[in-house]
UniProtKB/TrEMBL annotation:
GO annotation terms (biological process): bile acid biosynthetic process
Gene3D superfamilies named among the record's database cross-references: 2.40.160.120, 3.30.70.3490, Pleckstrin-homology domain (PH domain)/Phosphotyrosine-binding domain (PTB)
Cell compartment(s), UniProt: Cell membrane; Cell projection, Filopodium tip; Cytoplasm, Cytosol; Endoplasmic reticulum membrane
Composition skew (Basic and acidic residues), residue ranges: 26-40
Ranges of Polar residues composition bias in the record: 12-25
Membrane association type: Peripheral membrane protein
Segments for region (Disordered): 1-40
Protein name: Oxysterol-binding protein
Predominant subcellular localization, coarse grouping: membrane
Keywords noted in UniProt: Cell membrane, Cell projection, Cytoplasm, Endoplasmic reticulum, Lipid transport, Lipid-binding, Membrane, Nucleus, Phosphoprotein, Transport
Any Gene Ontology CC annotation: plasma membrane
An example Gene Ontology molecular-function term: sterol transfer activity
Annotated ranges, domain PH: 58-153
UniProt organism field: Cyprinus carpio (Common carp)
Length: 712
């Protein structure tokens, strides 16, 4: 998206009589090719740019549109929509709408809106859900786009002009978005780093700008602050024209947390002058990182009550700690495992301000595999290690392998498939590092009875392959992702099939779509939705696990339902539970727990929300260094520095590593060569499988005696 397409900053001096939100239709392209590209790309509809009392009340619009569903059945379905005063409601039919049988309600003014002209699609991201709409004809599409623009601007102006005491009567989620819009519409805001100043030039420039505006006598301001060892540290400055003093006084006199940027700031009204402004100011800063290389929303979840709380079990995980605080697992046979593993990371997560919207605003609806992102958004693990996290509950596969009843075996396989999502519940705040092409990772766990290897086999598109084996099973998959940002949420759609072999029996299943909400502000949270279809290749025994659509905090949040059927579709076993807690076999209250998530470590919120298993994945024991290839993720310096809390060092190393990767790619292209993975090969079905050489080479002659590419 070009510079002229970017969203203009909100200014307190602009008061357009009509909405200025259609820059896309006002440009003339130089040739038909540019026009085609523009028609086939997502266009972001801009927000209101100032207040006005002259926006005409928009006309009511209603009719049929197509709406994409994500659960329980994918595809486009007709829904009857009504757009009135900036609120979009819908029902299955017009009659249902008149009778109040609504399927959903969308505040268009508080949503991020994007459109794609070629496919006649309109997307609305409300933080809680993403709504994908589609018109059947070009005229209908243009009519809805025009009216949605007008209603959206009208609604945003209505919110900013409405007395704050009325707005505060709404629900907390709406409060958060309303207060953000109020502040953006009335104020100029600088949100500052929580750390002590490390950029005197930027601090002086920002202070000079603030003092200049304050000196004109036309602005008033407030600030939020805190103290460190008695030193006054400024967190934010917010200033506005005196003409808006009445509404701003009401806003800041309320006992509310106003979100500025991406952080909640407790505002303190102050009458101090420029003398009270410290020099501890630093601006937002951006860094570079490549995000993992997005489906639909349906707000029509089941109203059934949750029975998970009605069932209990005695499943537990036992740990003991030595005098150094290092945890060691107690095996089921009573023996202590040989390896003493750490129970926390070297450093807590460092809180850094990031202007994420400036990066993502021009990428609505696009695949984010090539979008530069700040390293502060990462967690100190990468995608290869995330794949290893999926086998944390491998004991379920051991149980399945030793279960002779084929239907009960599928029950444990289903539990294993669901357990792979448990670790994500506390991890919505960070993203894993993208592996470098040729990067590897091994995990040898004698206590769990498996050995695991993974390799990044492709860069564009990014493809990660892994292989895990034990005496009871072989598990492998190659995973590629499509990520799409919709304005407030990001959808992650995995592609590929997961494979499992138990003593000659083959099983396969697919993964579901994930969505991270509140990307830009507020508390991020993740949901998974779709269906996991697991099947046995030859015996026609099937299991269908439906990961239900549910909002965070809802009664049925994170619920899972499933069934094991025979070849005739007859239900043999029923399953229910929550993907972040437990899975049960049977019907409540007599159901049996077949899997329960391990307890979280103490203070896990401060350590990236990592589980105990995740904490152990990047640990580099002294005796392991000589055995690993230098391409192993544990040797990656940027990830190691982030784990140790050195963000600046991590960013510097990451940029250096990316330069090396680009240079290797350039050399390959100049010589008409392609990269060949070291430990994986392509199968006949175009998937990636292990070539069976890793562990043999590790043993003889050893990786230290082999020629290994320099990745970092």
């Amino acid at each position: 998206m070009s510079t002229e397409d970017q969203i203009a900053p909100l200014s307190p001096k602009t008061s357009p009589a009509t909405p200025t939100i259609t820059p896309f239709t006002q440009r003339k392209e130089s040739n038909s090719s540019s026009e085609d590209n523009r028609q086939d790309s997502w266009e972001l509809v801009e927000d209101l740019q100032g207040l006005t009392e002259n926006i005409q009340k928009p006309e009511k619009l209603e009719g049929l549109l197509l709406k994409k569903r994500k659960w329980p059945m994918k595809g486009w379905h007709k829904r009857y929509f009504l757009l009135e005063r900036g609120i979009l409601t819908y029902a299955k039919t017009g009659t249902d709408l008149k009778k109040g049988r609504l399927r959903g309600r969308i505040d268009v003014g508080l949503s991020v809106m994007a459109m794609k002209k070629k496919s006649m699609c309109i997307d609305l991201d409300t933080e809680d859900s993403i709504y994908h709409l589609k018109a059947k004809t070009r005229d209908l599409f243009e009519q809805w786009v025009t009216q949605l623009r007008h209603h959206r601007t009208f609604r945003q102006n209505e919110i900013t002009m409405e007395p704050p005491e009325l707005l505060l009567q709404s629900d907390p989620t709406t409060n958060r978005r309303v207060f953000t819009l109020l502040i953006q519409s009335h104020c100029i805001t600088h949100t500052l780093s929580h750390s002590l100043p490390d950029s005197p030039t930027d601090a002086s420039r920002m202070q000079e700008e603030f003092c200049r505006l304050a000196g004109t006598g036309e602005y008033e301001y407030t600030h939020a602050c805190y103290t460190v060892s008695g030193i006054f540290i400024l967190k934010s400055i917010c200033y506005w024209p005196k003409s808006t003093k009445p509404i701003m006084t009401q806003i800041f006199s309320t006992d509310q947390e106003v979100l500025v940027g991406s952080r909640p700031l407790r505002q303190q009204v102050s009458s101090e002058s420029r003398g009270s402004i410290p020099e501890s100011l630093s601006e937002f800063f951006d860094a570079k990182e490549y995000l993992l290389s997005g489906s639909s929303s349906e707000n029509e979840a089941s109203d059934d009550d949750s029975y998970v709380s009605d069932v209990s079990d005695s499943t537990s995980v036992e740990f003991c700690r030595n005098e150094n605080g290092v945890a060691k697992e107690i095996l089921s046979n009573g023996n202590n495992c040989a390896v003493m593993r750490r129970d926390r990371l070297p450093s807590t997560r460092m809180n850094e301000s990031v202007n994420l919207w400036s990066i993502l605003r021009s990428n609505i609806g696009k695949d984010l595999s090539k979008v530069a992102m700040p390293v502060q958004l990462n967690e100190p693990l990468n995608t290869l290690q995330r794949l290893c996290e999926e086998v944390e509950y491998c004991h379920l596969l051991d149980t399945a392998a030793n279960t002779h009843d084929p239907h009960m075996r599928m029950v444990y396989i289903a539990a294993f498939a669901v357990s792979a999502y448990a670790c994500s519940f506390t991890r919505a705040g960070g993203k894993p590092f993208n592996p470098i092409l040729g990067e590897t990772y091994e995990c040898l766990r004698q206590d769990k009875g498996f050995r695991f290897i993974a390799e990044q086999v492709s860069h564009h598109p990014p493809v990660s392959a892994c292989h895990c084996e034990s005496k009871n099973y072989t598990f492998w998959q190659d995973v590629r992702w499509k990520n799409k940002f919709w304005g407030k949420s990001m959808e992650i759609v995995p592609m590929g099939v997961t494979h499992l072999e138990l003593f000659g029996d083959r099983y396969e299943w697919s993964k579901v779509t994930s969505c991270i909400h509140n990307i830009l502000s507020g508390q991020r949270w993740i949901e998974h939705y779709g269906e996991i279809h697991a099947k046995q290749a030859f015996n026609f025994i099937y299991v269908c696990i439906c990961v239900c659509l549910s909002r965070s905090g809802a009664l049925n949040a994170n619920e899972v339902e499933g069934m094991v059927t025979d070849s005739n579709g007859r239900v043999i076993h029923s399953l229910f539970g929550k993907w972040n807690e437990a899975l049960y076999l049977g019907k409540p209250p007599s159901a049996t727990c077949i899997w329960r998530a391990n307890p979280m470590p103490e203070d896990h919120e401060q350590y990236y929300g990592f589980t105990q298993f995740a904490i152990e994945l990047n640990e580099l024991e002294e005796g392991l260094k000589a055995l690993l290839p230098l391409t192993d993720t544990r040797f990656r310096p940027d990830q190691r520095l982030l784990e140790e809390g050195d963000i600046a060092g991590a960013e510097e190393q990451k940029e250096r590593i990316e330069v090396l990767q680009r240079e290797r790619r350039r050399v390959l292209q100049e010589n008409n060569m392609t990269h060949s993975p070291r430990f994986f090969k392509r199968a006949e079905d175009d998937s990636w499988v292990s070539n069976g050489t890793y562990w043999d080479l590790r043993k003889d002659p050893g990786f230290s005696k082999l020629e290994i590419p320099v990745l970092w």
